[in-house]
Design a protein that fits this description.
By secondary structure, this protein is mainly alpha-helical. It has four helices and three strands.
């Protein structure tokens, strides 16, 4: 009876050890399964980290490129701003120079016109200002014993031969030829200045032939 009980106790202990080993194996299998699952998750995380790092690297590269582009644009805008400012300053200087030249030209023209006006009065000569500067057109008042006579003339401001012929004719009436020459010289100067710029000639410049129109058959010329 004692041997039977000892055998049964031994079997129980063996069975308990076996059951415990089974439980340990099951637990070990569960642990291995969890570890394997954890490793799988860890690998996924590592791959995600690698992908994220690649994306971050690409993003950083794009950011660097954009930064370089922005710096180049800023540098270009600064250079462009400097060029525009330099151009603006040059334009201001040029504008002021043009303004000064126009003022000097107007002043010079006014002085010439005043001189012409003075010479007109001194020589008794009246010039059609609308014909200037292309032509010298007008009339000279000649004081004679028979009263005032009028000598019309119409010539180009640069017609030297016509001027000489007219002056010779005026000398017979005691007209100050030097003042007359000065008058015509000023008119010729204005004509030269006018032709220096591309302007359309006055209509009157195309209506007359480049000759002196003196009526030598008039009573004045016969005296």
């Amino acid at each position: 009876m004692a041997i039977t009980m000892n055998g049964s106790s031994y079997e129980k202990r063996i069975k308990a050890v076996y059951d415990k080993q089974i439980r340990l194996q099951v637990r070990e299998a569960n642990v291995i399964k969890k570890v394997s699952k954890f490793k799988g998750h860890l690998l996924d995380v590592k791959e995600a980290v690698v992908r994220h790092q690649r994306e971050v690297g690409k993003l950083q590269k794009v950011i660097m490129q954009r930064r370089e582009e922005v710096e180049k644009r800023v540098s270009f805008m600064e250079e462009l701003s400097k060029d525009l400012e330099a151009t603006r300053q040059r334009n201001l200087v040029l504008k002021e120079q043009i303004k000064q030249r126009k003022m000097l030209a107007r002043k010079r023209d006014n002085e010439i016109m005043e001189s012409i006006h003075t010479l007109k009065q001194a020589t008794g000569t009246y010039i059609n200002n609308d014909a200037l500067p292309a032509r010298v057109k007008g009339v000279t008042a000649l004081r004679t014993a028979d009263g005032d006579q009028f000598l019309p003339f119409n010539l180009r401001a640069t017609d030297v031969e016509g001027l000489d012929s007219l002056c010779q004719h005026l000398q017979t009436f005691n007209i100050d030829v030097s003042q007359w020459r000065h008058l015509i010289s000023l008119a010729a100067e204005m004509s030269t200045d006018s032709h220096a710029t591309p302007t359309t000639p006055p209509k009157e410049a195309t209506k007359f032939n480049p000759i002196i129109e003196i009526d030598l058959t008039s009573p004045t010329s016969q005296t």
